[in-house]
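User: Can you write out an input/output pair for a complex, sequences first and structure second?

Assistant: Here is one pair. Inputs:
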Amino acid sequence: DQQVKQNSPSLSVQEGRISILNCDYTNSMFDYFLWYKKYPAEGPTFLISISSIKDKNEDGRFTVFLNKSAKHLSLHIVPSQPGDSAVYFCAASEADRGSTLGRLYFGRGTQLTVWP
Amino acid sequence: EAQVTQNPRYLITVTGKKLTVTCSQNMNHEYMSWYRQDPGLGLRQIYYSMNVEVTDKGDVPEGYKVSRKEKRNFPLILESPSPNQTSLYFCASSHSYEQYFGPGTRLTVT
């Protein structure tokens, strides 16, 4: 059963507007969450992350929000640009035996299209 | 330049012909992993390794083998490929939560 879910396979947003990508998880032991961006013919690249002890992390145009009680996180992109068009994967990690090394569990991804 | 490399990038083969996809990282990372990406299914983990000689199954290990004899290399072996292993494969490495991915290997098994 999938432990990380991205229920919207696609999202279309006009340039300059806000893009909001959502992600839900089921495992309460997850302690770190990441967003990856993937362009066609390339490997996923890390975008932004958040620890379970925080509820918000911001990096330029990208902000991730974490709601632990709802087991929900979201990625906000403001303002959206055509170059942001890509597949976005949500991922969660359960640290292995106190180490920061651990498996990443990925959602199925959301295709974001930003149109001019 | 810090990177994860995979070879080959593209491979077309026939059912049953053993193949190996190589993965190498130059960042001295302890953790390495293999994923496959299929339409509508996202990234699914095949195998992972926490360190040299330490490997474990991910979510979809059937039909695959791995080995970790050196820290920098983590080859993926398909002993008898089948058409349902046609997919896009990614290798990744990390020293912490954030994983660095290779460029991908597109495998077609006919």
